[in-house]
Specification:
This protein is of the alpha+beta class. It has 2 domains: 17-82, Arc Repressor Mutant, subunit A (Orthogonal Bundle); 90-286, GAF domain (Beta-Lactamase, 2-Layer Sandwich), CATH 3.30.450. The chain is built from 11 helices and 8 strands. Strands 5-4-3-8-7-6 form a 6-stranded antiparallel sheet, sandwiched between helices. A two-stranded antiparallel ribbon has the order 1-2. The longest helix is centred in the middle third of the chain and has 19 residues, at 90-108.
């Protein structure tokens, strides 16, 4: 007589994890890396949980900052990234930007800054120096008023105007006599930056005698960092090196967010005079009124 093992023959029935901790773990495990960005349906598919359950738990995780919700969907939040020892994902930004910063310095001999926004300030993540580096007060981990620096203004230009208003209330602190001191004037400058396809300039607004050009590294929902070249205001030819900075920022963005588009082919090392834009295009951009950077 053959004994049939009815337990093994019975159709397997999947049961939901009993505890909330198990369900949260399945959802967090759906994000395979720091840059993973998933829709609600993708999280539900990867976790194997019902869509309604995933939606309810994601709402709680967003509120507690384990998950971040933006227009593209969901990604890991501040707390999740903090467990890995990098609260804001800055190490990834630095790694993606490192070869670009090095090449920009080799091509131009100028000081290169990598910055991120923190409220109304720019925080320097990296600095590659040239002859001017020792006299510039910037340092890795240091802060500067975002509205006074080229890199800071480049990032502010891609924020909603309402967010800029919230960030800067009343008069703006002045680092030098050339620093923008009024919110209305700052909005006008940010509009000019957008018209110049993201190029931000400053001459002596943050530090007397220093001129910079910066471009934002942009992600899904706005700026994630900026790259800026700085030099002596008396000799720096910002309009010549501006295309190099723009190309570098696009390359870092493509490395961090490959789904936004294929990386541009790196240009061979060349003198800054060989810009990627025509002299006519640069002339049209640079003819626009500015707030004292020329």
């Amino acid at each position: 007589m053959t004994v049939v093992d009815t337990e093994t023959r019975a159709p397997e029935k999947r049961e939901l994890p009993a505890s909330m901790v198990e369900r949260m773990t399945l959802i967090l495990d759906a994000f395979e890396g720091r840059t993973a960005r998933l829709t609600l349906e993708e999280v539900a598919c990867r976790s194997g949980l019902p869509r309604s359950t995933v939606h309810r738990i994601l709402d709680q995780l967003v509120r507690l900052e384990w998950i971040e919700h933006a227009s593209f969907g969901y990604c890991l939040g501040r707390r999740s990234l903090g467990l890995a020892g990098d609260v804001n994902g800055h190490s990834q930004i630095r790694a993606a930007a490192a070869p670009v910063l090095h090449e920009l310095h080799m091509q131009t001999g100028m000081v290169v800054h990598l910055s991120v926004l923190d409220g109304s300030h720019s925080v320097y993540l990296d600095k590659i120096g040239g002859r001017l580096a020792s006299v510039l007060p910037s340092r890795v981990g240091g802060r500067a008023p975002a509205h006074a620096t080229a890199g800071g203004k480049a990032m502010l230009a891609w924020l909603d105007p309402e967010r800029v208003d919230t960030t800067f209330s009343g008069r703006l602190a002045k680092s030098t006599d050339r620093t923008i001191g009024e919110l209305g004037t700052l909005h006008q400058e940010l509009g000019r930056i957008r018209q110049r396809r993201g190029l931000a300039f400053e001459r002596g607004e943050a530090v007397r005698g220093v001129a910079c050009v910066g471009v934002a590294v942009r992600g899904h929902d706005g700026p994630v960092a900026s790259i800026a070249l700085c030099g002596d205001a008396r000799t720096a030819q910002l309009e010549r090196v501006a295309p190099l900075v723009a190309d570098g920022a696009r390359e870092v963005s493509a490395t961090l967010f490959p789904e936004l588009g294929a990386p541009r082919r790196r240009r061979p090392a060349a003198t800054p005079e060989r810009g990627s834009w025509s002299p006519q295009a640069l002339d049209r951009m640079l003819a626009m009124p500015s707030s004292g950077w020329l």
